[in-house]
Every structure is written in C-alpha cells, then in structure tokens.
Structures
1.
Amino acid sequence: MSETTCITTAVDGRVATITLNRPEALNALNSTLVTELIEAALAYDADPGIGCIVITGSAKAFAAGADIKEMVDQSYTDMLTGGPFPGWGGFERMRTPVIAAVAGFALGGGCELAMMCDFILAADTAKFGQPEINLGILPGFGGSQRLPRAVGKAKAAEMVLTGRMMGAEEAERSGLVARVVPADELLAEAAKVAATIASKSLPAVYAAKDALQAAQEMPLAEGLRFERQAFAAAFATADQEEGMRAFAEKRAPEFTHR
Ligand code: CAA
C-alpha cells in the first residue's frame, strides 16, 4: 500500500483500490485530495495490468462533499476558471471500469464522485444526498444531471431542492446503487466484483463501458448505431475468438486482452 497526503492506494492482482483518507474532514474533497485521486486513477487507467479500479472511503464517510472551508472565499470567476477542482473531465473519460464502494455519507461532491463511477456498491450504512442548497449553492460536479438520470426527475428534484438524504435501501430501490451489502462485507464484496470484471477481456470491457456511457449521452438511434459498430469491432479481437472457441470446447477462456 502507498500513501500520499489524502489518499491511500493498493493493488491486488489486476484490481487497484484508491481509499480517500481525510478522516478529520469526513473525506471532504479539497483540491489536494481531488488532484491525488485523479492522478492515481489516471495512472491506473493507463496501465493495461489493471482491469478494474475501486474507490472507497471510510466506514463513516465515502466523502462529505467538496471542501466547504476551502470554497468559502472563492468567487464566481474562480469557479468559472476551474476553481480548486480541475481534471474531472479526464476522470470521466477513463476506459477502466470504476466501482464506488460507499459506506456512510456520500454527500454533495461525494455523491457526485460516486455517480461518476460506473456503478455504486453500497453498505447498509450509506447515505446519499445533494445538500448544496443548504449552503446557498447547487451541485457542481454533475449532481443535477446524473441524479435525475439515476433516480428520475421527481426524486432528484426533491433531494436537490430540499437537501434530503437518501438511505441505502431507498437508493437501491431507486436505481442509484447496484446493490446493498452489510457494512462489514462492503470491501470484500467490492474486491470480488472488481476481480470478476478484471478477469474479462480488457478490450471487451473497455467497449462495453463505452457503450454504456453512450447510453447516458446519446439519443437512442445514435446509441444503437454506436453499439452496432462497437459490437462489430469486437470481432477484430483475439479475445472474441478465444471466448467463443472456449465456450464451444466447454473450457474456461484464456483472455490475452488483445
Ligand atoms: N467540507 C469541509 N469540512 C467538512 C465537510 C465538508 N464538506 N463535511 C464535514 N466536514 C468536517 C466538519 O467541519 C468537521 O470538522 P471539525 O471537526 O474541524 O469541525 C468534521 O468534518 C466532522 O464533521 P461533523 O462534526 O459535522 O460530523 P457530523 O457527524 O456531526 O455530521 C455531516 C456529518 C452531516 C456529513 C456534516 O459534516 C455535514 O453536513 N457536512 C457537509 C455536507 C455538505 O454540505 N456537503 C456538500 C458540500 S458542497 C459540494 O459538494 C459542492 C459540489 O457539488 C461540488
């Protein structure tokens, strides 16, 4: 395990885990933490030896939002020119799947970070919310756009306009999280799911992630064209032939990630 100022990182086989580590501030996303997180994630994304990334926090907080104390004196112009939080664009465009393993508070920028990941596994202690309205602002890392896509307009509007938090069970019922597990099993379950993803063909995983992303961004007809092209392209990989041959020969595939 290696430690920088505000995160720790660890690699196990083809799975990398980034742990947010500012316990004194409930993992509030200050500029140092965000810079370290994005740098670490992009480095793993560039490494073909890594097939899945897990981002997690502590038992009490995944992240309690952007760092309010750091933002208090920021101006309109500071925010327009990037403020203390540049670099999310690169994070959002990563090819490697990212799982958010969320226990405790995932609020404001913390909820938004979790939603930037491919999916969320939640502990039964997880609490999601966009409480920015209580601070005289609104979500700024994508919450007003991703939350309605995840839970529908009515629930998202209620949460963004009132600041109400949503517990893990409601979050699963509403489609915000993939699955809820007991808190003491969260990290083991996230590691298991990540290892499963990392065992698949890397080009197939990249393409599937891309197509799922397209579903969030494109109209249906365009998304279907995108998928058809990506599906055809999968037949240019060695892993497609290996995957199908292994099925026919009733054996496990040996993907070479080519
Ligand atoms: N920024 C800076 N510091 C934070 C923080 C944040 N977002 N959230 C918590 N902290 C700090 C607290 O100030 C406190 O520090 P001190 O001990 O130095 O006072 C420490 O973390 C522990 O917090 P609490 O004592 O408040 O813990 P609690 O258990 O009583 O309450 C909480 C937990 C309900 C999460 C509460 O801390 C809280 O409401 N936090 C703020 C949540 C929030 O408003 N998030 C949105 C931020 S804005 C944003 O994210 C914008 C965007 O979209 C990009």
2.
Amino acid sequence: MTIHIGIIGTGMIGEEHARRITLQLTGATITAVTDVDQEQARGVVERLGLAAEVYPDGASLIASEAVDAVMVTSWGPTHEEYVLAAIEAGKPVFCEKPLATTADGCRRIIEAEQAAGKRLVQVGFMRRYDSGYQLMKEAIDTDRLGAPLMVHAAHRNPEVPERYVTPMAIHDTLIHELDTFRWLLDDDYKNAQVVFPRKTRHAHSQVADPQIVMLETVKGVRIDVEVFVNCRYGYDIQCEVVGEEGVARLPEPQSLQFRQSAQRSNEILMDWKKRFADAFSVELQAFIDGAASGTLGGPSSWDGYAAAIAGDVCVRAQESGAIEPILMPERPAFYA
Ligand code: NAD
Ligand code: ISE
C-alpha cells in the first residue's frame, strides 16, 4: 500500500522531509504540496521532480482525495489550524514541533482527537528516534544507571536570525528538551526557573542569550539545560544523565578524527539537518507505516501538549526570575 502524502509548508524542513520520503523511505509518495509562497511550493516540486499537484492552500490540500495523510511543516503559529482540519477530515497528520504555539492550542487538538475517537497525530519530536538517546533510554529503563538523579544538557546553535526573540529559546529550541526528558525519564515536570548569564556580544538586541533553564521533575530529578543559540562554533547537543550507579553521556555524532599540523581534531556539525538525519528518517518511516496500518505511534498530541504546558511556564519563569510551578493535568486514558 502506498500512502499519498500532502505537505503544507515547503520551506526548509518541508523540503527536507519531501526529499527523504521520495528518495530514501518506502511506502509513501508526495501527491500534493502547498505553501503561502506558491513559488516556493512549485520550486520544491521541480527540484525534487515530484509528481505532485500544487494546491492554493492548506484547506483544499487536506480535503483532497489525492491525500491520505498530511504533513504540517509550515510556521509554528499555523500548525493548530491545519492539525485540527486534518483531524476533522479523519486523516493521519504529522506535525512538526511545536504542535501549537500555546498550551491552549494543544488542548484544543487533544480534545478534537479524542472526539474523533482515534489517534491521528504524530508530533515531530525526532530526538526520540535518535540512536544515542535511545541507548540512554535503554540504560535508564534497564536500571543500569540506578535511579536518575540529575541531567546536565546543552542545546547550542551557531546563530539565529533577527526575528528570533527571547521566548523562542523556549518555544522553538528548548521544546525539544522539554519533550525528550519527559520521555527519557518517564517523568513529568514540577517547576522551572530560568537564569541569564552574561550576554554574548554575538546576540542581537531582542534575544537574551545564553539562558540556563532549571527544571525539577515530579520524581525529584534536577535538570539544567544551557540554551545558547549564538555559540558560533557549531550545532551542539549535549546530554548527561547522572544516576545512583553511574553516568551516561550522549554519544558525539560520528566523525573522522584528524591528526594534522600538530593538532588532533574532529569536525563539529553546523546544523540540525545532519545531526539528526538518521532520526528524521526513522521518525518519518514510522509515520508512513503508522498511517498505512492505521496505528500511529511515537510522540502524541498529549506529548505536544505536555511540552507546551512546560514551555509556557518556562517563558513565565524567564520574565519573573522565580521558580514557577508546572501543573500538569491528568493524562486521559485515551493517551495511556
Ligand atoms: P521555513 O520558514 O524554512 O519554512 C516554513 C514554510 O511555511 C515557508 O515556506 C512559509 O512560506 C510556509 N508557510 C507559512 N505559513 C504558511 C501557511 N499558513 N500555509 C502554508 N505554508 C505556510 O521554516 P522551517 O525551518 O522549515 O520550519 C518549519 C517548522 O518546522 C517550524 O515549526 C519549525 O519549528 C519546525 N522545525 C523543526 C525542526 C526539527 O528539528 N524537528 C527543525 C527545523 C524546523
Ligand atoms: C530548530 O527549529 C529546530 O527544531 C532544531 O532542531 C533546533 O535545534 C533549533 O534550535 C531550532 O531552531
């Protein structure tokens, strides 16, 4: 069975996902694309040689009989509307992070999905599919580390554009960690605090950079995440879990080691595309297979909601400087 996919938003990651599905993965074909910038959509069809129609908008793409499953890769504020429309149409939908830009938006999605009576949403938290994080999870789940006590993490980007402002360090960047640690530790958050070290001279005026986000979980694990989005030297994701019986560190991406000119060195990647290339492939293949079998797995809209609740509190903590409580509603049996 071949799943016919329609892509809404053919920018950077939309094109990446379309390329992967077309050239690398099995079981799906792109039959429809749309973008508010129609030239952009036409460009992707041409560059990838897709046999896909360019639709004038997301609504007509979702309604089309040529589309079995939807991928939402447009800007964050547009996600909620398209995910709700796909649920309404009864079509499986893969939504890039964030599921919606507010917890309220995510709540409307989980309500609609429950009313539809069937899981239809997979959220693009691709780190769950990264082999390094999966090894860490296995070490925790098999009790190799004993009880996890602390997590030290860093999310560093070389640079961000002018439109990236202080709260985006949470909604756009930290949102990955907010999902990853709930999943890794099988835990939820209890409170958050954000502190700001001295600002780097490379950050523009509207973004406080770096930031340190400190989270406490319900089980008492303390997590610190450095978010540093103008670090200049590379795209660098670090994570270390300290347990009662030992410490596990996320593996570095594979790279050649050079001995040259009296120096020993390894390349550091510069963007997320290469760093999580394999994870994106596994993630999207899981979506295709889930859409074909009618049983989606992976990060659910509840996970998108939980990350958004914590994210909203982290933004409040950025503003207040205080330790802010995170109150998670009870998880409905639908998402057990
Ligand atoms: P981008 O700006 O390159 O592309 C977004 C595209 O969406 C643009 O072409 C824009 O014209 C289009 N668009 C905007 N509003 C639209 C609408 N209403 N209908 C249709 N198209 C619309 O951005 P990007 O970097 O590709 O990011 C897109 C999404 O993917 C964001 O939510 C971002 O957070 C997420 N993302 C995830 C990862 C990851 O690691 N999982 C990495 C990058 C981006
Ligand atoms: C980007 O949108 C992503 O999702 C990347 O995975 C993340 O690392 C980066 O910080 C975001 O800007």
